[in-house]
Amino acid sequence: GIRKFYSQDFEGATEVSATGWASPSAAAGMSIASDEYGKFFQFSPGNTNDRSAHLLWGESIIKDAGVTNYKVIFDFCIAAFGNNHLTTEIAVMSDETTCTSKANGNFKSNSTNCLFDLSEDTENSSTSSTNRPMIVNGDASATAYIEQGTWYNVTINVDTEAKTAEYTINSLMGDLVAEGVYNLPEDCNPWATGIYYLAGR
C-alpha cells in the first residue's frame, strides 16, 4: 500500500509561521503568495546577499514507520534568479543542523547528508540570463536548465537499503528536464528531514 507521511497545503495558510518554514536571517522575506492556480510558500532575500530558508519535518516521520523505500515530491518555481549572486540552490536534506549552523551557504558543500541537490552552475551562468544551468547532485554532467518563472515538479525515490535516490525533474507541462540515480555517500543519512532553499541577491 501507499502511506502519506507528510504533506503541505497552503490554501488554508494565513501565516508563514504556521507552515513550518523558517529563515535564520531573512524572515521578512517569507510569505504566503498566490496565483491563478492557488497558494504557495514564497521566499525572497530582497536586496541582501545570499539568504536561505528551510522546512524541517524530522527524520522520525519516515524512519520510525519501518519502510525502506519512500518518495519526496515537491513543486518549485524560481520567479527571478539573483542578478548579482549566482547562488540559487534547492536541496532535500537528511540532517537538521546544517541549515541553521551554516545558513546562507550551499548546503551540499557543507554536508554529505543531501539526498537531492540542484545548485546553480556558477561557472556557466550569467546574471543576465533567465534560463540557467543548474547542476544535479554535484555532477556537472547532469545539468538541468531551469527557466525563470516556470513551475517544475521534482520526484525523488529513495531506497534506504541500496542508498540510492532516483530523481526526475519535469516542467508542469510534462517536459522532462533531468533524470538519474544518485548514489548516496557512505556516511549519508538516508532519511529525509526537510527542504533547504538558497537565494542570491
Describe this structure in words.
The chain has helices spanning 60-63, 98-101, 107-110; strands at residues 21-22, 30-35, 38-43, 51-56, 69-77, 89-93, 114-120, 131-136, 139-147, 151-159, 164-171, 176-183, 194-199. The protein is mostly beta strands. The longest helix has 4 residues, at 60-63. It starts with 20 loop residues before the first strand and ends with a strand.
Question: What key phrases describe this protein's structure?
Answer:
mainly beta; 3 helices; 201 residues; seven-stranded antiparallel beta sheet
Mean pLDDT: 95
SS-based structural class? mainly beta
Radius of gyration: 16 Å
Assign an overall shape.
globular
**What is the strand content?**
35-45%
The largest pleated sheet is described as: 7 strands, antiparallel
List the helices and strands and how they pair.
Layout (H helix, E strand, L loop, with lengths): L20 E2 L7 E6 L2 E6 L7 E6 L3 H4 L5 E9 L11 E5 L4 H4 L5 H4 L3 E7 L10 E6 L2 E9 L3 E9 L4 E8 L4 E8 L10 E6 L2
Antiparallel strand pairs: 1-4, 2-3, 4-13, 5-10, 6-7, 6-13, 7-8, 8-9, 10-11, 11-12
